[in-house]
Amino acid sequence: MHIADGVLSTPVAAATAAVSVGFVAAALWWTSRRLEERQVPVLGTVSAFVFAAQMFNFPIVGGTSGHFMGGALAAIVLGPLQSVLVLAVVLTIQCIAFQDGGITALGANVMLMGVVGGLAAWLVFRGLKAVLPANRAGLLAAAAVASWTSIVVASGVCALLLWVSGRFPLMESLAAMMGWHALIGVGEAAITCSVLSLMSASRPDLIAQWPLVREARA
Amino acid sequence: MNRKSVLFVVAGVALCLAIVLAASFWASSAPDGLDRVLHDPEARAWRPNLDEDGKAREGAEESEPVWDKPLAPDYKLELVQDEPAQTALAGILGVAITLSFTLLLGWFLRRRNAV
Fold first, then answer.
1. For residue A56, how many other CB atoms are within 10 A of its CB?
2. Which of A1, A80, A209, B43 gives a 20 to 30 Å CA spacing to A163?
3. Alpha helices in A35-132 (DSSP H)
């Protein structure tokens, strides 16, 4: 979902950049208050994983591919604003070093994948965690739905940006973007749950949103 | 970092490198969801940025990238000849940059125990 230069209108690019600058500033402040020393290696490793996994486009149907986004994984393992930071760093490196995503659309890309994706995932995960059984299966189910939702909501907001930029009519834009990303979201859920399963088996204490260990540790 | 943290990072980085290697051979080159929507040939009827012949109206297509000094455009580091190796090198470089930058950032941002 990396937007290139020239896709968005100038006002949309400027407004989304302003939103992203605000959220990144808030994320830096919040992370500096919350990040525990033992989470520093987690921040580094999750960010590296998001970068690596975003390179692996998997085919879906009809000559289209999708790739992992990572907002849900980062939000569940580290926290919602921490995930903004992870995605902002990864997207900036992708843009500057690898020309993936336009530099004039970097604000929009950070807003969609970091802010919208991360916060949507976190809200859904917290909501489902409260109602689903508090065991491994319940948590993984919540993570799966949160991952899928993060992709579909981010693609919906992306569709709105394309509409406001005058590229597509509203309904067609929403239908096309959310339709493809409803499929890509299944891949996102599978990857997020695989990583959470691995971490849950090896270092569950490093998943901030995993209540089982919190009790075990206490 | 204690020994368990180092082990976690090493295992994580090994996984990242495995993914990068796999991606350099097997990643799909088909357009992703957004690119598909932006360039969908069947969707031209409702694209206000295309004229009746399906040609882009002026100023309605993606521009050339504004930033034109990337290290490895399109994840291909052209130090070597063959393409999977170019992608693998770019990916290893990207993982290294991302990991070192975020570890440093986290080290500066971490909550100090001393008040």
1. 20
2. A80
3. 40-54, 71-77, 80-98, 106-109, 117-131
**According to the model, what pLDDT value does residue B83 have?**
87
Of A48, A94, A98, the CB nearest to B99: A48
Structure tokens at B108: 């500066």
Residues of B in contact with A180 (CB under 8 A): 33, 36-37
How close does chain B come to A95, measured CA to CA in Å?
8
Contact A95, B72 (CB under 8 A): no
Q: Which of A132, A149, A130, A17 is nearest to A75 (CA)?
A: A149
Tokens of A54: 């975003």
- Under a CB-based contact definition with an 8 Å cutoff, are residues A74 and A50 in contact? yes
Nearest to A182 by CA among A212, A206, A135, A149: A149
Do the Cβ atoms of A36 and B61 come within 8 Å? Answer: no
| pLDDT, tens digit, 9 for 90 and up, residues A50-98 | 999 999 999 998 889 999 999 999 999 999 999 999 999 999 999 999 9
Q: Are A165 and B43 in contact (CB under 8 A)?
A: no
Determine the average pLDDT of the residues in B73-98. 93
DSSP H/E element including A59: strand A58-59
Q: At what angle do helices B3-26 and B83-109 cross, to 10 degrees?
A: 150
The three-state DSSP-derived secondary structure of chain B is CCHHHHHHHHHHHHHHHHHHHHHHHHCCCCCEHHHHHHCCHHHHHHCCCECCCCCECCCCCCCCCCCCCCCCHHHCCCCCCCHHHHHHHHHHHHHHHHHHHHHHHHHHHCCCCCC
Is it the case that residue A181 has pLDDT exceeding 60?
A: yes
Higher pLDDT, A101 or B60: A101
Report field, pTM of the whole predicted structure over 0.90: yes
Structure token digits, residue A123:
């809200």
